[in-house]
Design brief:
- The chain has five helices and nine strands.
- With about 180 residues, it is of the alpha+beta class.
- A hairpin with a 6-residue loop joins strand 3 and strand 4 (about 70-75).
- The model has no long low-confidence stretch (mean pLDDT about 90).
């Protein structure tokens, strides 16, 4: 595993959705560092990547309401436990659950284990509301997948919030998920 600035040298064996991420970041002049690795679809698998990149990968949860009409992408620190009641009240949506993989593919062009905030570039109809735990915004850098879980990126959190999100026409709603000691 090697950390490099910008996209990998060889793009010919990459998935189109990954290349699309690199192209958009470069078009927006958002600097980033990239590393290839074995598939990392869990927070435990991301620990080695975190160490190399000196950043904590966010936990990304793709959620929906019971009727499957409202969809949410939640970014939260990997060490926090997710409890639907803590979030439901803040966003005014009862009975949240994990959205099915068919919705991930349809709205974000992402498969389970590869969920990433960068997938919002594929949500052209703004079907997915971005929710960000306030703690994520305290870090200078954010780590995420480029829509595939065999590569990870490190970019400035402010570049994500101030440049990427406006460019893909998404806004974030900041939420507070309690730490275990607050419960």
């Amino acid at each position: 595993m090697q950390l490099r600035k910008g996209h990998p040298a060889l793009l010919d064996r990459r998935e189109e959705k990954e290349i699309k991420v690199y192209n958009l970041l470069e078009q927006l002049k958002i600097p980033y560092e990239q590393a290839d690795h074995k598939a990392a679809s869990t927070m435990e698998a991301c620990e080695r990547v975190d160490e190399l990149m000196q950043v904590t990968m966010c936990k990304n949860l793709f959620l929906c309401n019971r009727q499957q009409t409202d969809f949410y992408l939640l970014l939260m620190p990997g060490n926090k436990k997710f409890k639907t009641k803590d979030l439901s009240k803040q966003i005014g949506s009862a009975r949240l659950s994990f959205a099915g993989p068919e919705f991930m593919e349809k709205f974000l062009n992402i498969s389970p284990g590869s969920v990433s905030v960068l997938g919002l570039m594929n949500d052209l109809e703004n079907r997915v509301q971005l929710l960000v735990d306030e703690e994520v915004l305290e870090d200078e850098f954010i780590g995420c997948h480029p829509c595939v879980n065999t590569s990870s990126l490190k970019l400035l959190t402010k570049d994500l919030t101030e440049r990427f999100l406006p460019a893909v026409h998404h806004e974030m709603k900041i939420v507070h998920l309690p730490n275990p000691e607050e419960e």
